[in-house]
Amino acid sequence: MILLLDAHILIWLSSQSERLSPKARDMLSDPENRYLFSTVRLWELAIKKGLDQASFHVDPRVLRRGLLANYFEELPVLGNHALAVEDLPLLNKDPFDRLLIAQARTEGALLVTADAKMAEYGSPVRFV
Hints:
By secondary structure, the protein is an alpha/beta fold. The chain has one domain: 5'-nuclease (Rossmann fold, 3-Layer(aba) Sandwich), CATH 3.40.50. 47% of the residues lie in helices and 15% in strands. The protein has helices at residues 7-14, 22-28, 39-50, 60-69, 79-84, 95-107, 116-119, and strands at residues 2-5, 34-38, 73-75, 110-113, 125-127. The longest helix is centred in the C-terminal third of the chain and has 13 residues, at 95-107.
Protein backbone atom coordinates (compact mmCIF):
# COMPACT_ATOMS: atom_id res chain seq x y z
CA MET A 1 0.00 0.00 0.00
CA ILE A 2 1.17 3.54 -0.72
CA LEU A 3 0.76 5.85 2.29
CA LEU A 4 1.00 9.63 1.98
CA LEU A 5 1.60 11.02 5.47
CA ASP A 6 0.19 14.32 6.67
CA ALA A 7 2.28 16.80 8.67
CA HIS A 8 1.11 15.82 12.17
CA ILE A 9 1.80 12.16 11.46
CA LEU A 10 5.28 12.98 10.14
CA ILE A 11 6.11 15.21 13.10
CA TRP A 12 4.78 12.76 15.70
CA LEU A 13 6.55 9.86 14.02
CA SER A 14 9.89 11.68 13.86
CA SER A 15 9.65 12.76 17.51
CA GLN A 16 8.32 9.36 18.68
CA SER A 17 5.36 11.18 20.20
CA GLU A 18 2.74 9.38 22.25
CA ARG A 19 0.19 11.34 20.23
CA LEU A 20 0.69 8.92 17.34
CA SER A 21 -2.23 6.52 17.68
CA PRO A 22 -1.80 2.74 17.88
CA LYS A 23 -3.72 2.51 14.60
CA ALA A 24 -1.19 4.82 12.94
CA ARG A 25 1.75 2.94 14.47
CA ASP A 26 0.42 -0.31 13.02
CA MET A 27 0.08 1.21 9.55
CA LEU A 28 3.57 2.67 9.74
CA SER A 29 5.24 -0.54 10.83
CA ASP A 30 4.35 -2.61 7.76
CA PRO A 31 7.53 -3.09 5.69
CA GLU A 32 5.42 -3.81 2.60
CA ASN A 33 4.07 -0.25 2.52
CA ARG A 34 5.62 2.66 0.62
CA TYR A 35 5.77 5.85 2.66
CA LEU A 36 5.50 9.25 0.99
CA PHE A 37 5.69 12.80 2.27
CA SER A 38 4.67 15.78 0.19
CA THR A 39 6.65 18.89 -0.59
CA VAL A 40 3.40 20.77 0.00
CA ARG A 41 3.71 20.01 3.73
CA LEU A 42 7.38 21.02 3.75
CA TRP A 43 6.35 24.31 2.15
CA GLU A 44 3.65 24.84 4.77
CA LEU A 45 6.05 24.04 7.63
CA ALA A 46 8.69 26.39 6.17
CA ILE A 47 6.11 29.19 6.05
CA LYS A 48 5.15 28.59 9.69
CA LYS A 49 8.79 28.48 10.77
CA GLY A 50 9.49 31.66 8.81
CA LEU A 51 6.71 33.43 10.69
CA ASP A 52 8.77 32.74 13.82
CA GLN A 53 5.82 31.56 15.86
CA ALA A 54 6.97 30.90 19.42
CA SER A 55 4.84 27.77 19.64
CA PHE A 56 6.25 26.26 16.44
CA HIS A 57 9.35 24.13 17.00
CA VAL A 58 9.68 22.07 13.82
CA ASP A 59 12.61 22.61 11.49
CA PRO A 60 11.40 21.43 8.07
CA ARG A 61 14.97 20.92 6.83
CA VAL A 62 15.79 18.57 9.70
CA LEU A 63 12.47 16.77 9.27
CA ARG A 64 13.10 16.27 5.54
CA ARG A 65 16.64 14.95 6.09
CA GLY A 66 15.37 12.49 8.69
CA LEU A 67 12.57 11.25 6.47
CA LEU A 68 14.87 10.75 3.49
CA ALA A 69 17.45 9.01 5.69
CA ASN A 70 14.72 6.58 6.77
CA TYR A 71 13.70 5.75 3.18
CA PHE A 72 10.57 7.86 2.99
CA GLU A 73 9.90 9.06 -0.54
CA GLU A 74 9.45 12.75 -1.29
CA LEU A 75 6.44 13.50 -3.48
CA PRO A 76 6.87 16.73 -5.46
CA VAL A 77 3.90 18.86 -6.47
CA LEU A 78 3.20 18.28 -10.16
CA GLY A 79 0.87 19.99 -12.57
CA ASN A 80 -1.61 17.11 -12.54
CA HIS A 81 -1.79 17.37 -8.73
CA ALA A 82 -2.56 21.08 -8.92
CA LEU A 83 -5.23 20.56 -11.57
CA ALA A 84 -6.87 17.73 -9.59
CA VAL A 85 -7.75 20.23 -6.83
CA GLU A 86 -10.50 21.53 -9.11
CA ASP A 87 -12.27 18.15 -8.89
CA LEU A 88 -12.51 18.19 -5.09
CA PRO A 89 -15.71 19.24 -3.32
CA LEU A 90 -15.22 22.38 -1.23
CA LEU A 91 -15.39 20.67 2.17
CA ASN A 92 -12.16 22.32 3.25
CA LYS A 93 -10.85 25.70 2.13
CA ASP A 94 -7.25 25.16 3.25
CA PRO A 95 -5.23 25.11 0.01
CA PHE A 96 -2.45 22.96 1.52
CA ASP A 97 -4.96 20.32 2.67
CA ARG A 98 -6.76 20.33 -0.66
CA LEU A 99 -3.53 19.88 -2.62
CA LEU A 100 -2.47 17.01 -0.37
CA ILE A 101 -5.81 15.25 -0.93
CA ALA A 102 -5.49 15.81 -4.68
CA GLN A 103 -1.99 14.31 -4.59
CA ALA A 104 -3.26 11.22 -2.76
CA ARG A 105 -6.06 10.73 -5.28
CA THR A 106 -3.78 11.26 -8.27
CA GLU A 107 -1.06 8.94 -6.95
CA GLY A 108 -3.41 6.19 -5.75
CA ALA A 109 -2.17 6.67 -2.20
CA LEU A 110 -3.94 6.50 1.12
CA LEU A 111 -3.60 9.85 2.91
CA VAL A 112 -2.95 9.20 6.61
CA THR A 113 -3.97 12.15 8.78
CA ALA A 114 -4.95 13.16 12.30
CA ASP A 115 -7.10 15.99 10.89
CA ALA A 116 -10.82 15.23 11.24
CA LYS A 117 -11.72 17.98 8.75
CA MET A 118 -9.65 16.31 6.04
CA ALA A 119 -11.26 12.96 6.86
CA GLU A 120 -14.61 14.38 5.69
CA TYR A 121 -13.41 13.71 2.14
CA GLY A 122 -13.56 9.97 2.72
CA SER A 123 -11.45 7.86 0.42
CA PRO A 124 -8.49 8.22 -0.04
CA VAL A 125 -8.21 9.90 3.39
CA ARG A 126 -7.75 7.77 6.52
CA PHE A 127 -8.19 9.42 9.92
CA VAL A 128 -5.97 7.81 12.56
